[in-house]
Amino acid sequence: MHLMSLLLLAQSFPLQTTDSLIAHKTTITPVVYRDLNSIRVIGEGDQNLVVISDSEFSNGTIEVEMAGAPGVGAGAGARGFVGVAFRASKDLSHFEAFYLRPTNGRAEDQVRRNHSAQYISTPDFPWERLRKEFPEKYESYVDLEPGAWTKVRIEVDGAKARLFVHGNSQPTLIVTDLRMGQAKGAVALWLGPGTEAHFRNLKITPRN
């Protein structure tokens, strides 16, 4: 019965329409991208979110397919930042997130490659602070291609989270001290400045 209860809690969102989505500093458009039905998200600022309506998540698994690339007119620092936020507060001032920098995945500069995947905790622990105070701890390398569909899975258990990319059995990034501890909040699609992002097939499986 316990397993059945867990399965009943799972929520699936095809992300082919704007149903169940709340735009925050973003524009959402249903599109066909690389032959697959999805949503395109364009951001308007630095912390761009698409909140999943009525989602409440503390522990469990989040899975999604996403693609990110620098948008039209993006600056030289654009990396196609695309990811998932979780445990977001109602006013969206606080949340945890994992995201990818797709243009770093195959860069010729090894240092850039090492910054392909990132964990952040908004507002107190942005990537700049984490990189300065804890070099290499909250980011890592993963092979990425800008604009390509990429499968991502995030497993959260208390203060620990693991990021899996491309369906790999081993995590790309492990965080053992999530900065929001045991918080609970919404799940949201996340993208950084200068990004054109696409998302499809979101699945949220909460766990006690």
Keyword list:
mainly beta, single chain, 7-stranded antiparallel beta sheet, Jelly Rolls, 208 residues, 8-stranded antiparallel beta sheet
Tell me what the structure shows.
The chain is mainly beta. It has a single domain, classed as Jelly Rolls, CATH 2.60.120.560. 9% of the residues lie in helices and 46% in strands. It is built from three helices and 15 strands. Strands 1, 3, 4, 6, 11, 12, 13 and 15 form an eight-stranded antiparallel β-sheet that branches. A seven-stranded antiparallel β-sheet has the order 2-5-14-7-8-9-10. Mean pLDDT is 94; it is low at 4-8.
CATH class: Mainly Beta
Helix content: under 10%
The computed structural class is mainly beta
Largest sheet: 8 strands, antiparallel
Percentage of residues in strands: over 45%
Overall morphology: globular
How do the helices and strands follow one another from N- to C-terminus?
HEEEEEEEEHEHEEEEEE
How many domains, in number, for the residues?
A: 1
- Total of DSSP H or I helical runs spanning 4+ residues: 3
> Spans with pLDDT under 50 lasting ≥5 residues?
4-8
Instruction: Please give the alpha-carbon distance between the first and last residues.
Output: 14 Å
Tell me the radius of gyration: 16 Å
What is the CATH homologous superfamily assignment? Exo-inulinase, domain 1
CATH architecture: Sandwich
> What name does the CATH topology carry?
Jelly Rolls
Number of strands: 15
| Mean pLDDT level | 94
